[in-house]
Amino acid sequence: MEILPPPPYDHPYKGHAIVRYGSLAQVEHFCHTMQGIVSAYQALGCAKVNPGRCFIMIPKVSGKISAKMQSEIRRHEIAHCNGWPADHPR
């Protein structure tokens, strides 16, 4: 289950958001390998934030990724665009 964001970060992003969808392997490659993030967990998504814009990579609906799960992952990543830190404080 994806961690849902706290209310201060749980709102639409006001900047320009670009969302890309890929397979779980593509998301893992982009989020961990290309972004240099080291984690023992499989990446289900990530957000690369720049002033006024945010690039989000999340999995497409397929296999174990349902539409509901994809929506929760997108919500989680939008919260990172809104300033929610990577260590997920509540």
Quick overview of this protein structure:
The chain has helices at residues 24-34, 67-81, and strands at 16-22, 46-50, 53-59. The protein is of the alpha+beta class and 90 residues long. The two termini are 16 Å apart.
Overview of this structure, please?
The chain is an alpha+beta fold. The chain has one domain. 29% of the residues lie in helices and 21% in strands. The chain contains 2 helices and 3 strands; from the N terminus they run E-H-E-E-H. It has helices at 24-34, 67-81, and strands at 16-22, 46-50, 53-59. A 3-stranded mixed β-sheet has the order 1-3-2. A hairpin with a 2-residue loop joins strand 2 (46-50) and strand 3 (53-59). It is globular, with a radius of gyration of 12 Å. It starts with 15 loop residues before the first strand and ends in a 9-residue tail after the last helix. The model has no long low-confidence stretch (mean pLDDT 91).
Q: Helix tally?
A: 2
| Class from secondary-structure proportions | alpha+beta
Sheet with the most strands, sense and barrel status: 3 strands, mixed
**Uncertain segments:** none
**How many domains comprise the coordinates?**
1
User: What fraction of residues sit in β-strands?
Assistant: 15-25%
Radius of gyration: 12 Å
Name the shape in a single word. Answer: globular
The tally of beta strands, per DSSP, is 3
Q: Quote the distance from N terminus to C terminus.
A: 16 Å
The strands making up the biggest β-sheet line up spatially as 1-3-2
Helical content band: 25-40%
Mean pLDDT: 91
